[in-house]
Amino acid sequence: LKDQYAAENPRSRELMAEAESWMPGGNTRSVLHFDPFPLVIEKGEGAKLYDVNGHVMLDCVGEFSAGLYGHSEPAILKAVSEAMSSGIVLGGPNLYEARLAELVCKRFASMDLVRFCNSGTEANVLAAVTAREVTGRSAIVVFDGAYHGGVMTFAGGQNPMNVPFDWIVLPYNDPAAAREVFIKNGRRIAAVFVEPVLGAAGNIAGTYEFLQTLREETEKSGSLLIFDEVKTSRLGGGGVQGILGITPDMTTLGKYLGGGFTLGAFGGRADIMTRFNPHEPGSLKHAGTFNNNVCSMAAGIAGLSSVFTKERAEAFLKQSESFRLRLGEALTNVHPDFHVTGLGSLISIHFASVEPKSGADTTKETRQFRDLLSLKGLLGGVAFTGRGDIFLSLPMTDSDMEIILKLIVSTATEYLDF
Ligand code: PMP
Q1: Candidates 230, 232, 234: which one to mutate for ligand 1, based on the most atoms within 8 Å of Cβ?
Q2: Whose CA, among 182, 230, 244, 335, lies 20 to 30 Å from 24?
């Protein structure tokens, strides 16, 4: 199959070889590395991608969830071009920032006040620093398999490029381990960072008991519970915190928040975020040239106010969750070891005797299946991420979803024959 892929994509191979002259590996996003080479994308439209070799694909990469709106949402294009016509960078508070802040704070229960930055990574680093300042403590609890950004990665051991905080890494979905760490280290812990659905490790949903335990233990010990909802905030009208009714002290956001443009946000309880108020003596400083760039702000406002309204978010959760469950049934019929994990539009497929509950549960068979799925998809007109995550987007139609489902099920059948 790899030979077929290489033969069908000569232009991508050429362009990637040229790119390697200037960038190690040919691009600046490690996650886009693909063996033998990734496809070079020429354009996107709605839920479709067009590559330089002339192929059209349904886009399940969905820019790793930032592509919620697809590639050409008219309301976003209009808002951005209107904003651009009044200047690209303004270097002052502008007409957009507070409106976006209001939309965000009204949507997520934990966010009384918010600050913007440029990416999910930045949002998490800033939230971590905030927690250390506010609590006067140093340790930060994270979970094995978590991805909180390029410098906060905890899959398969610690990333040597991680910011050198005092990390404590625990197994995901293990309330007993969490209770124990608080008994032993409670007074040292500034914050617990958790993705309510463990994303990069294969979209594994946190159980209510696990997340509620984290809520109780952090509250008892005076440390902060931080939900990284960079991906999961798209689930329903108020993110996973809204679905479960568990309110963290702080929340971080990113991905689709800027309508597809670069943006991150961190926010939380007023007494925490007030520490950034420059009217107060000893306030925390957080600057950033592009924190309030008009392009991301205008796109974000258009997205949240006229496209991905709370109502639409609820409907999209229902529609995508029904797709996920249908896919699960279809794959179980192929073989009972297939599991379709995640929630709503954040989906992964696993092959294992029991459904995975943590990052360590990803099996060799799961990886093999996902490799096959990526290749079969690229050859068959559906782009999946190299590591097998599936992201649905708003412009996908029911018939698009049917095509995706059929391709996955036929690949599953083929996988068993290998
Ligand atoms: N947190 C989570 C849960 C993420 O999935 C990501 C990105 N994949 C990040 C943080 C980092 O966001 P960014 O890529 O915008 O820095």
Answers
A1: 230
A2: 230
Q: How far is the CA of 149 from the centre of ligand 1 (A)?
A: 5
Could you tell me if 271 and 327 lie in one domain? Answer: no
Domain CATH code at residue 159: 3.40.640.10
CA of 147 to the centre of ligand 1 (A): 7
Q: Looking at the whole model, is its pTM more than 0.90?
A: yes
Q: Which of 180, 113, 164, 173 is nearest to 146 (CA)?
A: 173
Cβ atoms of 333 and 349 within 8 Å: the answer is no
In this structure, the number of other CB atoms found within 10 A of the CB of residue 44 comes to: 17
CA-to-CA separations, 416 to 331, 336, 386, 409, in angstroms, rounded: 12, 12, 20, 11
Interface predicted TM-score (ipTM) = 0.99
Q: What mean pLDDT comes out for the span 234-263? A: 98
- The chain-wide mean pLDDT, for the chain, equals 97
**Last residue within a domain, chosen from 307, 322, 348:** 307
Looking at residue 402, its amino acid is E
Residues with CB under 6 A from ligand 1: 64, 119-121, 124, 147-149, 195, 199, 228, 230-231, 254, 264
Note whether 260 and 69 are within 8 A (CB). yes
